[in-house]
Specification:
Blueprint: H1 5-34, H2 43-75, E1 79-80, H3 88-96, H4 102-111, E2 114-119, E3 122-127, H5 130-139, E4 144-145, H6 148-158, H7 167-177, H8 183-186, H9 190-208, E5 213-214, H10 215-232, H11 259-263, H12 265-286, H13 299-327, H14 344-351, H15 355-386, H16 388-401, H17 410-415, H18 417-429, E6 435-440, E7 444-446, E8 454-456, E9 461-465, H19 466-469, H20 473-476, H21 491-497, H22 517-534, E10 535-540, E11 568-570, E12 574-576, E13 581-586, H23 587-595
Parallel strand pairs: 1-8, 3-9
Antiparallel strand pairs: 2-3, 4-6, 5-13, 6-9, 7-8, 10-13, 11-12
Helix pairs in contact: 1-2, 6-12, 6-13, 9-10, 9-22, 10-15, 12-13, 13-14, 15-18, 15-22
């Protein structure tokens, strides 16, 4: 029987550390009492000594660490990063409350683009400076890693997969994954066609009933089906569950959905994966003491079990098929090379017989293939509900390059410059991963264009926000907060992005750059073209949208707070809180009604 997380932390960390020093002080006082000088302290002095030992230790260690850090920084000719004033609970409130990354944005106005803040006794550096992010991800890649703390926080959901591993384990997973994102594989649009058609059909059916649709749920199922087709060789057909009906206006969070939707295995998988991501994201805020907040039960492990229940039959089938091939004497020296028709799953079970390693990698890649592209498509359509001018230009480009009858090809999407600019602008203002981080392996520095480098103490996690960096007016111009795809086509491209490419990092950078970025562009381009070939007149269904920004949020300089009509939400990836509910018109139905 597994030890509850809170008990484990108490036994292995908190109690030993809490009792060790008072016990040493007790022995010392006992020694003084029994020494020849017979120093007898009154009871109150014993109590005071034992009670004050930890506060005194904290004061002494804090002063020592402060002096040590100053001394080490000076030895490197570096400066200390500005420190945010305020307690842990105020810091947590600012991080978790308000608009996306609002707390970080407010601090940046006071402390600059890089600062250090403390949560529950743990220091973290936050930066939105492209030179720092470049150093962390690329030029000083060997100085940084995911780190033991993140691995511990994420392990019960993601295991040791490519996104939660370092060193040789990361290289092992990366080498397994890379061949499956070759140009030949990701430009095969047959993978997208069937699932796009199924998703559009489900959307059309629900709209024909007179209901708005949760577009975010629909594209999450489209990307899940496409990803499992691409990775497993067969889709899990989550779209067959149908779509949720709009929430009732009579209460805050109900969902009146069909029995098929509620009981479909993919619905449980999608819900568990989302809740698991939320659980490990909260651990990231709570730091090394996250087990105290999940005292009796590892919440992410429970969600992992639900996810495994969904994936296990597919994995077992792949392993059974491999054994049959081996029994048929089909194994050769090239058994661990990638075959042309081989799926990612088939390759994994050839490379390793460790079922947990295979499961870890599958879930890591599924997370990337499903959630990031679903985020891009969701926010793309959100923008189209707000910008009919951009909608019209996209329709015009589709009409010119493809028309409205045939399916797009890889060559079509490659030539559609405005569509790519539109996707880039969506990724700029609404990046799928708004905040990420790395930990230094040892004390190091980050470059400072205005003088001495910034000192980074060992074990101080460096958090970077591309969400905030992508919105900086000094990096993108005075119109940085305006959604304008032309900035990726006109003179602004050469003025801002070309000379400083690290100001735009929707897919990370350096050795750990996202292998699937072209897959995401291709999948998103294909689906949006098909969507605009079939539907028109996009609008938000605010009458059924469960969560909307508070009415007291007013537009403020330097942020889009008060402008967005939906509430941004993030665990590992960014989404619209409680779904994106929209209305659209089916072009074919509109034409048929007009002909009548």
């Amino acid at each position: 029987m597994a030890i509850p997380p809170g008990i484990e932390l108490l036994l292995k960390d908190i109690l030993p550390n809490a009792l060790k020093l008072p016990f040493i002080v007790f022995l010392f006082l006992k020694f003084l009492q029994q020494s020849p000088s017979e120093i007898n302290l009154p009871t109150w002095a014993w109590i005071a000594a034992l009670v004050s030992v930890h506060p005194v230790k904290w004061i002494v260690s804090t002063l020592y660490k402060t002096r040590r850090v100053k001394r080490e920084a000076a030895a490197r000719g570096a400066m200390l990063v500005p420190r945010v004033k305020g307690g842990s609970f105020e810091t947590i409130r600012k991080i978790r409350g308000g608009y996306m990354a609002e707390g970080f944005f407010e601090w940046s106005k006071q402390y600059g683009q890089t600062f250090i803040f403390r949560v529950l006794g743990v220091d973290r550096i936050l930066t939105m400076e492209p030179e720092h992010i470049k150093a962390i991800l690329a030029t000083q890649f060997e100085d940084f890693h995911k780190g033991e703390m993140q691995e511990d926080q994420f392990n019960s959901l993601l295991g040791s997969g490519v996104f939660n591993s370092d060193g040789e384990m990361w290289k092992f997973h990366r080498s397994m994954t890379r061949p499956f994102f070759s140009k030949v594989r990701i430009s095969d649009y047959d993978v997208f066609e069937r699932h796009a058609e199924e998703t559009l059909s489900v959307l059309a059916e629900r709209l024909a009933q007179g209901y708005p649709v949760d577009f975010q749920d629909a594209v999450a199922r489209f990307t899940l089906d496409s990803a499992t087709q691409f990775l497993f060789g067969k889709a899990v057909d989550s779209t067959s569950a149908g779509l949720p009906y709009p929430p009732s206006s009579s209460s805050s969070h109900p969902t009146s959905s069909s029995d098929t939707y509620l009981t479909h295995p993919s619905t449980k998988f999608v819900t568990a994966f989302a809740q698991g991501q939320l659980a490990i994201t909260l651990r990231n805020v709570r730091g090394k003491y996250w087990r105290l907040f999940e005292f009796w039960k590892d919440e992410a492990a429970g969600y992992r079990k639900d996810v495994e229940d969904f994936v296990n039959p597919i994995l077992d089938e792949a392993m059974t098929n491999l054994r049959r091939k081996e029994e048929g004497d089909m194994e050769s020296e090239n058994m661990k090379e990638v075959g042309e028709e081989e799926t990612f799953l088939e390759h994994l079970v050839k490379v390793t017989e460790d079922k947990k390693v295979v499961m870890d990698e599958l879930l890591n890649i599924l997370l990337a293939a499903r959630d990031t592209t679903a985020s891009l498509l969701t926010f793309s359509v959100y923008v189209l509900t707000q910008r009919p001018d951009i909608f019209a230009r996209l329709k015009s480009e589709i009409s010119e390059k493809i028309g409205f009858a045939r399916r797009p090809t890889y060559e079509d999407t490659r030539d559609m410059k405005y569509l790519r600019a539109f996707l880039n602008e969506t990724l700029r203002l609404y990046p799928a991963v708004p905040v990420d981080g790395r930990s230094p392996k040892h004390a190091t520095t980050l470059p400072n264009k205005n003088g001495k480098p910034w000192y980074v103490p060992a074990d101080t996690r460096c958090v970077y926000s591309v969400f905030l960096m992508h919105r900086r007016e000094d990096l993108w111009g005075p119109d940085a907060l305006e959604f304008d795809p032309d900035r990726f086509l006109d003179e602004r491209l050469h003025k801002y992005l070309t000379p400083n490419p690290f100001i735009f990092l929707p897919f990370n950078a350096g050795p750990r750059i996202c292998l699937g970025q072209q897959f995401a562009y291709n999948e998103s381009s294909y689906f949006l073209i098909k969507l605009l070939q079939k539907f028109d007149d996009f609008s938000l269904a605010l009458d059924v949208q469960p969560s909307q920004p508070p009415s007291e949020w007013k537009p403020e300089p330097g942020t889009t707070k008060g402008r967005d009509k939906v509430t941004l939400f993030s665990h590992l990836t960014m989404s619209v809180k409680d779904g994106l509910w929209i209305r659209m018109n089916n072009i074919n139905e509109t034409l048929e009604q007009g002909q009548k």
